[in-house]
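Design request, tokens follow.
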């Protein structure tokens, strides 16, 4: 084999390798800049991150991947929103009228003070608010309510607090 051709071949190969490494280096710097921009607002830290990758190249990328903030600003924002929503849902959960502790919408009795919170429909078994005289799910009047022509509006209107509670044969909370 002609030594000149071999030399040229090695030279060409080296040139390609160098060109590839330069393109990779530039790409990594651009990627790091974009990545750190989505994670940090501090311009000094952004420059530092790009510098680490620019100076150390592949080891720099590894270091950057280890120490970069785990969440992007967008993810951080979503996370904050979720936390706020969670906090709000806790704050909005109703309080037991008997003991004041937080209760769930689906509970029929307070587990702490045994106050009756809801009554089950005797027809379909779904939970109704205590003042309701008609089941809003199946339309069955509550036991003791013999008004046949009661309207949905009348049934769903909450009773004034001082009014007598609806007589319930099976209820036994003294
Ligand atoms: Zn309670
Ligand atoms: Zn029902």
């Amino acid at each position: 084999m002609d030594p000149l051709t071999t030399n040229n071949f090695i030279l060409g190969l080296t040139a390609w390798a160098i060109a590839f490494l330069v393109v990779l280096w530039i790409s990594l710097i651009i990627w790091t800049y974009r990545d750190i921009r989505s994670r940090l607002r501090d311009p000094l830290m952004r420059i530092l991150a790009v510098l680490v990758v620019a100076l150390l190249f592949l080891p720099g990328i590894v270091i950057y991947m280890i120490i970069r903030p785990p969440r992007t600003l967008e993810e951080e924002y979503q996370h904050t929103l979720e936390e706020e929503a969670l906090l709000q849902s806790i704050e909005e959960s109703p309080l037991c009228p008997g003991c004041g502790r937080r209760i769930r919408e689906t509970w029929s009795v307070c587990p702490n003070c045994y106050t009756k919170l809801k009554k089950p429909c005797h027809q379909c078994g779904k939970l109704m608010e205590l003042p309701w005289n008609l089941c809003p799910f199946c339309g069955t009047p509550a036991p003791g309510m013999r008004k046949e022509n009661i309207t949905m509006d009348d049934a769903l209107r909450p009773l004034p607090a001082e009014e007598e509670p609806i007589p319930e044969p099976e209820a036994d909370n003294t």
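Comment from the thread starter after seeing the answer: thanks! The chain has a mean pLDDT of 85.
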